[in-house]
Amino acid sequence: MAFDPMLQRQIMGRFATGVTVVTTRYGEQISGMTANAVMSLSLDPPLIVVSVDCKSNMHGHLTQGQCYAINVLRHDQEDLSRRFAQPGPKDFSDLKLAVAETGAPILADALAYVDCRVVEVAPAGDHDLFIGEPVAGETHDGQPLIFYSGQYAQLAPIAADS
Q: With CB atoms 3.0 to 4.6 Å apart as the test, which of 37, 42, 84, 95 could cross-link to 47 if both were Cys?
């Protein structure tokens, strides 16, 4: 008997994740998408993965661009997550952007970013795993945006020992 994909979605929805915007550049075009299916795959050699739906526009853009930046969103950037989760072209015009090594856009106000060159694409069901070699990155102080059970959330402050 096949496993119910809706049950899989419900179960994995109980796994709290950070929220990122993955960006790429191909020629003069820039593109982005909200993603929480990202992971640090290996430290030796350093490898980072983003999972992308094969039918999405972003899949073609990553294939053409051969690079991506994973921008980790701050707790107050839910609006960016929602913007980049919508289908179709994305509006970057009001965003402060930077670039590092690959030319992929970096959201200057993100909590952290890692800039990667695509080194391999591995098929995985209806998605492909874009495996990237990190070539630049940076972190900033702040709290992350969290996604849990279909909703945005924030980390609770840690109580000091009395």
A: 42
- What is the pTM assigned to this prediction? 0.92
**Domain contains 157:** no
Domain with residue 29: its CATH number is 2.30.110.10
Tokens of 34: 């909200």
- Specify the pLDDT at position 2: 87
Rounded CA-CA distance 99/107 in Å is 9
Residue 8 lies in a domain: no
Listed residue (112, 118, 104, 140) closest to 18, CA to CA: 112
Q: Where are the beta strands (DSSP E) in the chain?
A: 17-18, 20-26, 29-35, 38-43, 46-53, 67-72, 97-98, 106-107, 112-124, 127-139, 145-148, 151-154
What residues make up the domain containing 124? Answer: 18-151
Task: Convert the pLDDT of each residue in 113-133 to its tens digit.
Answer: 999 999 999 999 999 999 999
Domain count, the chain: 1
Q: How far apart are CA 118 and CA 139, in angstroms?
A: 21
pLDDT for 82 equals 97
